[in-house]
Records
---
Amino acid sequence: MTNGPALVLGIESSCDETAAALVTSERRILAQKIASQDDVHAPYGGVVPEFAARAHAERLAPLIEAVLDEAEIEIRDVDAVAATAGPGLIGGVMVGLVTGKALATASGKPLIAINHLEGHALSPRLADPTLQFPYALLLVSGGHCQILRVEGVGRYQRLATTIDDALGEAFDKTAKILGLGYPGGPAVERLAQQGDPRGVPLPRPLVGKREPHFSFAGLKSAVLRAHESGNYAPADLAASFQQAAIDCVLDRMQRSLETMDEVTALVVAGGVAANTRVRTELEQCAASRGLRFVAPPLKLCTDNAAMIAWAGIERFAKGEASPLDVPARPRWPLDPGAEPVRGAGAKA
Ligand code: KG4
Ligand code: ZN
């Protein structure tokens, strides 16, 4: 370990963003680049895993070179290489992890295998140096929808998960129903601004239930039926869907907070945390309970490599490194001890 601030190269390739970043332990992002694959997947209305892996393989090496160039850093100057090792689409994860292993081996620096969900979970600490453990985290992305008590690096208690779709997935499916294209979340949010959030009667699955889990499949089906009825304007459908989804999130969050003691803040992370309405309503929820609200800046919410580098820094600071034969993992729950939830399917 060097004296002075640590410098970590982060690599992310678990879904449809290829990303690389250089971050210091002083929370400076020296450079970060993201190559989105929206162009590759848009014609299919969703991510095609094989095309994703191919695009990562083509784009990652030049992206890492560009990040090093921009920061005027040689690979031998980094203190560690942090790469996402799961959960995610296995072909893409392998591209990033194998590249990380190669760079770590070539430069003689430690490899730190990062759980992508831990990247999201710790990203608010990159943005906010005052955020202390433990905090209540709503992690909402395209593949995951969980409420966690973040107790420390590597220490997560999962209180809730989804029994069917993730919140971002519900936004994406609604976008598909409304013909808004891919990726759906930002498109639904834009259209919702012109609609009436009470214009379409939609269900709020699981609201009021004792267990704080989520379910969005029934809401999506209701959106489909309402759309097919021809009785509603797309903007009202988008706004009503968004409101119903947020009502579910707030109810489930409130329920979780009732059983979560000693948290310092309510924190939101993951792609859906980029949604302004989600942020505003969660902020009000936090205020009503006397909690601080923390949300990372938008560029740290959706998939990026700065959050992976930061998780690497948090682990490097604890003296951790991964063996070079660390495997890529399609599934990798943050809280392996969490009770399986009926119907939870493949969601880790
Ligand atoms: O964290 P992320 O980039 O990738 C995963 O790990 O899944 O999250 C992507 C998800 C997508 O489902 C996308 O539609 C959603 O986040 N998303 C949003 C917004 N921006 C991204 N959902 C609602 N409103 C947004 N503004
Ligand atoms: Zn993600």
---
Amino acid sequence: MIILGIDTSCDDTSAGVVEGGRHVLSNVVQSQVKLHHPHGGVVPELASREHLKNLMPVVREALSRAKVRMADLNGIAVTVGPGLVGSLLVGLYYAKGLAYVHDIPLAAINHLEGHILSIFLEDAPPFPFVALTVSGGHTSLYHVKGYGQYTQMGQTLDDAAGEAFDKVSRILGLGYPGGSAIENASLDGLNDRIKFPRAYLSSESLDFSFSGLKTAVSLFVKKWRNNQAEGDDVTVSDIAASFQEAVIDVLVRKVMMAREKAGGSSIVVAGGVACNKRLRARLGETASVEDVEIYYPRPAYCTDNGAMIATAGYHRLSSGERADLSADVRSKFPIQDLPSI
Ligand code: KG4
Ligand code: ZN
């Protein structure tokens, strides 16, 4: 079964072709970073217009690299939420058009399910596992018992971890996207130089909160710029590294707590922030002490991509699920609203 997956949920226009839910024939991503860079974040109106321009060439390129024609496709899978409404609409209506004209089954995909299943593009963790999806829009923990069987264990109550990276990067003048900028700046910094707060919420909670941390960094930077902060030799790198460590401390603690609560399974970490090497190193250290298997997709499958949507589509279409021309987008689309498969 060969599926074309399309994702236009945020600022990347992406299309991928995947065979059998696992074998990636192509994965093409057209980034909009340069367009949004001067604004320090994604501008929704610009993003949707750019998707309109880029989507057709990106899909053509994905089919061409995969060496398949439309007639070879057994399904088209497209993200319908969560995400930016204008951006999602471009992907959904393009996919509907393709599916209708070429008479190909269509699957409406939840972006978060795509991130959870992205690991299957190159590995095969045994069910059940705990998944931490950590990106610019989401920070959530799931107990994954099978394809389409997800129980949310925790989520962010305010900012997503990637959003905090992006905002702190802007505060520090390190640019957009913030995750890699903070990670790079941190390499020259001391991660225990500034004691930024860690929001564990309570000893039991698997929810996250990163907005207080972002405010703490912002207040510190104001004082620091006015030379009122303690330690006049603090550098931008020290602030970046101390912030990054505060986020990672919380992510590591909570994913391990979730694992324990779920009865000690393996762990899958996905989404853009899963590219962070310090996060991987810290998780690796903890995992080796506790003898836990941790799976990460390669960076190209951590950030938004069409291949992961094709994988989710493979499982949904295989179960008989179909979307029709009445399918609509959902800016908010909690994973618990998904039918199980
Ligand atoms: O999954 P993704 O591509 O899009 C969303 O669904 O949000 O994730 C993008 C997010 C951005 O906030 C970006 O700053 C963050 O992932 N990110 C990182 C790193 N690379 C990307 N955060 C921390 N460290 C990184 N190396
Ligand atoms: Zn994403």
